[in-house]
Design goal:
- A 5-stranded mixed beta sheet has the order 2-8-7-4-5, with no helix packed on it.
- With about 350 residues, the protein is α+β, with helices and mostly antiparallel strands.
- The termini are far apart.
- Helices cover about 15% and strands about 20% of the residues.
- The protein is built from 5 helices and 13 strands.
């Protein structure tokens, strides 16, 4: 007898659908045993009891088989948790500029021109050294920027005996490093030489310091008789206070007297053989006439005051002084005297 094809196809469609989905399990129910047809081989009647996932099975059933009960396939629910792709749009990366780590390292600082305890024989010493490029070095009111290679220099005035020199390096972040030195200033000892000129004995006293008190001849005829050279000799600078007060602001008087003390020791005839500086405030000879004229010390005949005239020298100093905190620039320092602050710290 011919097999029933429609039932096999129906089964095939169900199995194919389950195979495509891949999620159901098919188990046929128990049925009455099917007698084998004489014409059909024993293998034509199959009893299928298996869990099918993805295979295709064809079942042949003879017409003599009792009708199959129509049953609703029992489908074991299969929980298939499908994770939906959650697409979270990440915000665009925002460039966050965080401040660089703070610089807390102190700058390097070294004084290379002098060592602690050195003895010097000049009253004006230029200190030099090295530090961090971009930093600056301070000593008292004086600042010195470092060069590209980190070198720097500051000039300071020495007083008799021990001098304390303090240098502070300050970098861009405000970090500091300090170096302290003690420099001993010893005045050079004068040497006395005796020469014979025209049967007359002349004794001259010279020193090797930059500033000396050797009196320069005053027989020149090109100075105005209105302001002749004053008598020479070292003296207490208080002798010049009235003249300083006449030409300088009150808050600078003590500092100017301190400069006079350092530059000439109060001697109006002081002459520096090394630099050719003259007078109480040590004006350079090559600048004197212009400075005297600017200060009003040129007469109607075109003659200038002597650089050894104390009043003219002090007035010319006031004429060239700077303004503000750097008024002492022509001398490079302020010296401690009276109420004047000691620039050496």
């Amino acid at each position: 007898m011919r097999p029933r094809i429609p039932l096999a196809y129906a089964s095939l469609l169900i199995i194919a659908l389950v195979a495509v989905v891949g999620l159901a399990a098919f188990t046929p129910t128990a049925s009455t045993p099917v007698e084998q047809s004489e014409a059909a081989p024993a293998s034509s009647a199959l009893v299928v009891s298996a869990r099918i996932a993805s295979a295709v099975l064809a079942v042949r059933v003879t017409e003599a088989d009792p009708p199959l009960a129509t049953t609703t396939p029992q489908t074991t629910p299969v929980t298939s948790t499908t994770q939906e792709a959650t697409s979270t749009t990440q915000p665009e990366a925002t460039t966050s500029t965080e401040p660089p780590p703070s610089d807390t390292a102190p700058p390097a600082l070294a004084v290379t021109s002098h060592s602690d305890g050195d003895e010097v024989h000049s009253s004006y010493i230029v200190f030099s050294g090295t530090s961090e490029p971009g930093a600056y070095v301070r000593s008292g009111p004086f600042d010195a920027d470092t060069n590209d290679d980190g070198t720097w220099s500051i000039g300071l005035v020495m007083i008799d005996g021990a001098n304390r020199a303090i240098f502070t390096a300050i970098d861009a972040a405000g970090n500091t490093t300090e170096v302290r030195l003690t420099i001993n200033y010893a005045k050079p000892k004068p040497t006395t030489t005796t020469t014979h000129v025209d049967s007359h004995t002349h004794t001259t006293t010279t020193t090797h310091a930059h500033t000396t008190t050797t009196m320069k001849p005053t027989t020149q005829t090109n100075w105005s008789p209105l302001w002749p050279a004053d008598a020479g000799g070292i003296r207490d600078v208080e002798a010049w206070r009235a003249l300083v007060e006449k030409y300088w602001a009150a808050d600078r008087v003590d500092c100017v007297l301190g400069i006079i003390k350092k530059e000439s020791r109060g001697d109006p005839r002081a002459y520096n053989s090394y630099s050719a500086a003259e007078g109480l405030m040590q004006h350079l000879s090559k600048y004197w006439k212009n400075r005297a004229a600017a200060a009003g010390f040129r007469d109607s005949n075109g003659l200038y005051a002597s650089p050894y005239n104390a009043e003219a020298n002090i007035a010319a100093g006031a004429q060239i002084a700077g303004s503000g905190s750097g008024w002492y620039t022509p001398w490079g320092y302020t010296a401690a005297y009276g109420s004047c602050v000691d620039s050496r710290g």
